[in-house]
Amino acid sequence: MATPIDLPALRRALTPCLLALVASAAFADEPPAPAPTAEVAAPAEPPPLSTFAPERRVDLHARRVRTAPDAKAPLRAMIAAGEAFDVDARSAPTPGCDKEGWGRVAPDAWVCLDGTVVTTQAPRALPALLPFDPPLPSEAKDYLATRAWPRDPAETATPIVPFIYAKDRARFSGDDYVSLDAFLAGAPHHHVDTTRKLAFAELIDTEKGPVLRRASGHVVPLDAVWVYPVSRFHGVDLAATPAPEGTVPGWTNAPAGTAVYAAPEAAGEPAWTLPFQGQVWVTESSEHAGWLQVRDPSGTNADGWVPAKAPMHWWRDLAAPSGVDDAVWVDVDLDQNVLALRQGAALTFVTMVSTGVPDHETLPGVFRMMDKAAWWDMASLPGSDEAYHVENVPWTMHFFPRFALHGAFWHDVFGSVISHGCVNLAPLDAATVFGAVHPLAYPGWWTTYATAADPGSVVRVRQGQTAPRDRR
Fold first, then answer.
1. Which residue, 405, 381, 384, 382, is CA-closest to 393?
2. Which residue in 106, 213, 247, 330 could disulfide with 281, CB within 3.0 to 4.6 Å?
3. Which residues form the domain of 61?
4. Is the domain of 77 the same as that of 170?
């Protein structure tokens, strides 16, 4: 039996260089690794060793998870470097895994244990959120002027994203250092990369001021980069807060808010104003064409009326496609820029999203989720007129090559078209959807791929009330 190790100490010592291997770059919206092009018949699963006791393991490198204890079996997932995982059964050594043999880490999921070690550290679900308080979007203007924002300390900060996201920006220009020691010695390596949205793994306070550490171990002074303000917007959990009879969730994304009138006519002063990203219960009026009747969920304001042509985004139903049965699936309305989680025909969660701009429209269709990644780099194709590179985009879920649902930390205009074809969700919403849909991701798994045993959830992307082409 291998000797247990102290994973926290090991991770502190070695994670800076090892995580760089995991967070390697990829083209925009491409799956993290090639998914199997055809199902390969898995060899018969041998019985677990009768003397085996469940254990926890870890490797300092990312680990491939196979659908069977065979190095040629289809890829099932990737376990992130330095992340612990549970093993509940063992299988004998095979060619390519000829020392300790295979460990079962989930149903139809096997890892070669050669080179792994036993650990006492509990596995954790990925992405693990960072205890850091980024600016609010409402604080961005003052932050830009003062280079500071009212930041809660890590001990009391509410984690919202897995990294500190930042970029080089006017008035926030500075140097990159290869290590913390180099920073303390005043020996910069080069200027901060201006071509990327950067992901930092840690904030470190030093006698020379706070610095941000990258997965590679490089550090950048906190005041040398613009830290992205992160939206705290979130949708409605209809299991916890059911919609009143005859209503659906709706929002405004007008920066100055949307006027609500006492009657279905824009006459006189508004009765009240629905604030930016404020949520209401909406009823489409059959008697007053062009008007929405809205109800304040808090009960503070009386029911009122909003012109349907106002910047409002509300749920509009369409019968479920075939094959969803009672499973959880995703329904996206491009006309409304609204996304729902559904279980069969029922709604369980609804929120605003952002979809593709003209010439980069989000592809309509009925799909199955291909893969999920706790985070993944996204970049423009070589020679693109709009070059970009975004590191560690969180909660990435591909439903078609180069099209994904994912968290967006770099904007706060959900309800608008803004993406290059993906469906952008606020971080809180991205985490909700990621955890609800298949393929499943077990603790320690960085990526997971759809298989015959765990097919991806259905994803429908539609243009309003028009049923799209089935692309499954």
1. 405
2. 247
3. 7-118
4. no
Alpha-carbon Rg for the chain in angstroms: 24
This prediction's pTM = 0.89
| Neighbour tally for 428: CB within 10 Å | 17
Helices (H), 125-185: 140-146, 180-184
Work out the burial of residue 243: count CB atoms within 10 Å of its CB; fewer than 13 is exposed, 13-18 middle, 19 or more buried. Answer: middle
Q: Domain total for the chain?
A: 3
pLDDT averaged per 10 residues in sequence order, the chain, 472 residues: 46 42 39 42 48 88 97 97 97 96 96 97 97 97 94 94 94 91 95 94 96 96 96 97 97 96 93 97 95 97 96 97 96 98 97 96 98 95 86 98 97 96 98 98 98 96 97 96
Can you give the CATH number for the domain in which 272 is found? 2.30.30
Closest among 447, 450, 449 to 81, alpha carbons compared: 447
Question: What backbone torsions phi and psi does residue 139 show, to the nearest 5 degrees?
Answer: -95, 0
Contact 425, 443 (CB under 8 A): no
Whole-number Å distance between alpha carbons of 374 and 431: 9
- Asked if the structure places residue 438 within a domain, the reply is no
Distance in angstroms (rounded) separating the CA atoms of residues 251 and 278: 6
Q: For the purposes of burial, counting CB atoms within 10 Å of the CB of 192, is it exposed (0-12), middle (13-18) or buried (19 or more)?
A: buried
User: Do both 98 and 142 map to the same domain?
Assistant: no
What distance in Å separates the CA atoms of residue 294 and residue 351, rounded to the nearest whole number? 17
Q: In whole angstroms, what separates CA 144 from the centre of its chain?
A: 26
Residue where the block lists tokens 């699936």: 329
Helix boundaries (H) for 373-450 = 427-436
CB 447 within 8 A of CB 342: no
Per-residue b or e along 148-170, where b marks 16 or more CB atoms closer than 10 Å to that residue's CB: ebebeeeeebeebbbbbbbbbee
Please provide the size of the chain in residues: 472
Both 209 and 286 in a single domain? no
